[in-house]
Amino acid sequence: MTSMGSSTRICAGWVPKVGNKIHLSARQGGKETDLANQDNTPAAENGASEQESLHHLIETRLEKMTELGKQVTLYPYAYERTHTSTELRATEEALTAAEEKVRFPGRIMAKRGTGKTLFVPIQDEWGKIQAYFRKDDLGEDKFHQIQKLIDIGDWIGVEGTLFRTRTDELSIKVEDFTFLSKAIRPLPEKFHEMSLENKSRRRHLDLAMNLDSRERFKLRSRIISDIREFFVQEEFLEVETPVLQPLYGGATARPFTTHHNALDMTLYMRIADELYLKRLIVGGLEKVYEIAKDFRNEGMDRTHNPEFTMLECYAAYWDYHGMMDLTERMLRRLALRFGQDGKLTYGGLEMDFNQPFARIRFMDALAEKTGQDLMAMDTEKLTGLAKGFGVVIKKGMGRDKILDELFSELVEPELVQPTFVMDHPKELSPLAKAHRETEGLVERFELFIAGFEVANSFSELNDPREQRLRFEDQKALMEAGDDEAQPIDEEFLQAMEQGMPPTGGMGMGIDRLVMLLVDTNNIRDVLLFPHMRPEQTDSGNSTEGGTS
RNA sequence: GCGCCACUAGCUCAAUUGGCAGAGCAACUGACUCUUAAUCAGUAGGUUCGGGGUUCGAUUCCCUGGUGGCGUACCA
User: Are A121 and A109 in contact (CB under 8 A)?
Assistant: First the structure.
């Protein structure tokens, strides 16, 4: 094994086993030597011709790499670029007129040969530029390199002058080129969409093959930057609070649990930032916000990922009206910057953010839908009413929970235009302040757009006595078996007892917001690396499979 | 979680009433000095997701496990 050439050592050493059980061999003088048997590969993987085809493709490329390595540096350290593809297109005229030499690096996306010439689209982050190679210009060896030894998927830098082909394709007439890196695995096929699974699982391939996917993620990045800019403008302070928390809170959800070895203690991944941000308000920071990953140990689907990005902001002296205004300013700004004239299209629905957002009361909306005043109804009557509307009511649901179900069923789907829904029932909002006028309600709003919830906000509860009672209610729920109820956070209560000013707070799911702005209904389209189940069990089979 | 459906070459997909598994792209060999889904001629590539069962014979039928899609429940 040690006597083998460099390519074989490379292949045994670092060809990843991810997903595919490739067993590697190197061909020596036409004879196959099985490397897998000599490596520490588990014996189970030594099936005769497993993954033969892919294996063969990789082997071929490794052989070419060995050959190429005799002529050029395989992994050079840097490349000096003169222009990006965008810049080449923008300054084409001047560059062509001056016959200026350009240096352009990127990935080879195709090869179209006609004997002694070769057309090679090279792709950088922004797009493709075609490179034109002529044997007469490059000489025998160099042309052999690009024609035979360099593959689709490899990275090269080309140097030459710009021109237009007969078919009017902007191209670089290559005078010299530099090999930059090898792809020993083939790129996916070029003119069919990859499956959603493959795109999500192998994002590097999705990004390499689909420029629209690149654009979508770049848009996400710009949206988040813009939100930061907005908060700077609004004079909020960006802060960072702990991901690992001794107690979780600020939302109703099951947490991920982890363990700190040195302290020998259980820690939780945060489900919300809320309780820490409020401590900062207690401390005297008047306007704070955080854009952060939260973690919730719950189901996954088209709109849920176990880790997701949440915006939370708090402002001292504000109530939920102030937060409503802030939220409206922010979304109008986003719609103006990322939509068309302040309008967005989502799933064929058009939403106009130029007009003042509708503001409706939770109970009013329900009254309108049902034709009855639900405030006066007891649980039993409500259950009957809900069933009448086809809403499934489970045993043990409280009055407010039933109202919430009714609302989700009857009202939410119709809230297409940006709409603030205000003044919710109390039970579902343990951190919100009681409504200043109406008994049994809290000062809260949710913003709905295109039928789903985008933001949630309260006049924050700041009376520590009331907060303690609410926590105790939660504790009772927890003891009754509700594993989403919040535990009592004594340290947070202590902070509040120190005196918390009137405060408005708002939380917004950033992934949902981005989905709205890029018009997709799948969260995987806006997460670079959505959570996926492992593709294959490594040892594959008999021990776990088969027996029930 | 639960229900329904899917899984075939590196990628995207065909086909088999249960009887030698097929195409395009990618790869390889050759031809071609303006191609752009380049073209033309040829070659190679498969434990049909894993395990078990029924059968003379299973990729196809049955059971079971895995992964995915859609729906549903909880939630942002």
Answer: yes
A140 strand B contact, CB < 7 Å: no
Within 7 A of a protein CB, which nucleotides of strand B? 1, 9-13, 24-29, 31-39, 44-47, 50-52, 63-76
> How does residue A5 score in pLDDT terms, banded at 50, 70 and 90?
very low
| HEC letters along A201-252 | HCHHHHHHHCHHHHHHHHHHHHHHHHHHHHHHHCCCEECCCCCEECCCCCCC
Whether residues A164 and A21 share a domain: the answer is no
Cα of A125 vs its chain's centroid, Å: 19
Lowest-pLDDT choice from A218-227, A231-240, A423-432 = A423-432
pLDDT band at A536; cut points 50, 70, 90? low
CA-based radius of gyration for chain A: 30
What pLDDT was estimated at residue A299? 82
pLDDT-based confidence at residue A46 (cuts at 50, 70, 90): very low
- Claim to verify: residue A344 and residue A459 sit in the same structural domain: yes
In percent, how much of chain A has pLDDT > 90? 65
A270 touches strand B (CB under 7 A): no
Count the domains in chain A: 3
pLDDT tens digits for range A80-95:
999 999 999 999 999 9
Same domain? A448 vs A507: yes
The pLDDT, as a whole number, for residue A50 is 42
Residues 6+ apart with CB under 8 A from A6: A66, A69
The DSSP code for A110 is: -
Question: Could you tell me the end-to-end alpha-carbon distance of chain A, in angstroms, rounded to an integer?
Answer: 42
Instruction: Quickly give A532 CA vs B11 C1' distance in Å.
Output: 20
Q: SS3 for A129?
A: strand
What are the E-state strand segments in A338-398? 343-346, 349-352, 358-361
Q: Is the CB of A256 under 7 A from strand B?
A: no
pLDDT in tens, A341-359: 999 999 888 999 999 999 9
Q: What pLDDT was estimated at residue A176?
A: 97
Cα gap A135→A129, rounded to integer Å: 20
The ipTM value here is 0.91
- Judge if A457 and A337 occupy the same domain: yes
Q: What is the pLDDT of residue A231?
A: 98
**Cα separation, A115 vs A130, whole angstroms:** 17
Q: Looking at the domain assignment, is residue A371 inside a domain?
A: no
Statement: the CB of A163 is under 7 Å from strand B: yes
* Parent domain of A102: 85-181
Co-location of A422 and A500 in the same domain:
yes
Asked, for residue A336, whether it belongs to a domain, the answer is yes
Chain centroid to Cα A287, Å, comes to 27
Q: Which residue is nearest to nucleotide B49 (CA to C1')?
A: A536
> Which window residues (432-471, chain A) lie with Cβ within 7 Å of strand B?
452-454, 456
